[in-house]
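Trying the structure run again after the queue cleared.
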Amino acid sequence: MNAIKANYFDAYRSLKLTRDATGVLVAEFHSKGGPFIFAAQDHTDFVDAFYRIAQDRANKIVILTGAGGDFISGVDFSTFGNVADPGVGARFTTKACRFSKT
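Done. Tokens:
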């Protein structure tokens, strides 16, 4: 099947978007092509990305996946700056983000 590329597919540094002719969109989280390390800019980018994905009627199915075997392999807390409750970040662990391969 031929891939169909929308204009927003290359707009996000940590999200590789591909869609086939049947409307199956694969959204792969990555950091420079490797396992994904979540950062503050990604939070902002993903809000916009998922809005655009939802508005695009050519998308029939969306598959979320991660590069390198992990969905989210870590979080770069240093990119979030000062937070109102620093304990929130301390309670979060990357183990909560690990999924096994099926």
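The chain has a mean pLDDT of 82. Worth checking whether this holds up in the mutant runs.
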